[in-house]
Design brief:
With 171 residues, this protein is mainly beta. The protein is built from two helices and twelve strands, in the order αβαβββββββββββ. It is 8% helix and 39% strand.
Length: 171
């Protein structure tokens, strides 16, 4: 600690200011709670039980939950801000996106089919990985069309993600 009455070098002044300038990140794993071993089954008919009006997983869904997506889904998205494991069971998503953001690091998706073929789509992606790391996408089939920007799997500002054994058509 440098005495306050002593004249400081400009670099020391800068360091002192920087020490007081730290702000905790807005998204932190402290806020998502402990890991869960919950397994839930989501269908088109019970979708609103688990997702809000903005397509985001409700806060009652715990981190590390395994989500079995069963059957056909139409015009819905799946947005996660905490780690989850998605397993498709004869799952087809028509006009929808699976998105990982916030604290959804190390999430997984497997055995899902996504079809986004509406000619009116604007910036529609099959899967989005946005500022999260170490996610794993396997055995996913995506048929995506967008007049302006067509990405089957859109990865932005993310590292260490593994994308293997997928079939993507962007027409």
């Amino acid at each position: 600690e440098i005495p306050r009455n002593r004249k400081l070098h400009p670099l020391q002044l800068l360091i002192r200011r920087m020490e007081n300038a730290y702000a905790k990140p807005l998204t932190s794993t402290d806020d998502v709670g402990p890991d869960s071993s919950d397994v839930i089954t989501v269908t088109q008919s019970n979708y609103n039980t688990y997702f809000d009006d903005e397509f985001t997983a409700k806060t009652s869904m715990k981190q590390n939950t395994t989500i079995n997506l069963v059957g056909t889904f139409n015009n819905v998205n799946f947005i996660f801000n905490k780690k989850v494991h998605i397993i498709g069971k004869n799952c087809v998503i028509n006009q929808g996106t699976i998105k990982f953001t916030g604290d959804s690091h190390a999430s997984t998706v497997t055995n899902v089919t996504i079809r986004n073929r509406n000619p009116g789509n604007i910036n529609k992606h099959g899967i989005e990985i946005v500022e999260v790391n170490n996610c794993k996408i396997t055995n996913v089939k995506i048929d995506n069309y967008d007049k302006y920007e067509s990405f089957g799997i859109f990865v932005f500002s993310s590292n260490g993600n593994i994308i293997t054994n997928n079939e993507i058509k962007n027409l």
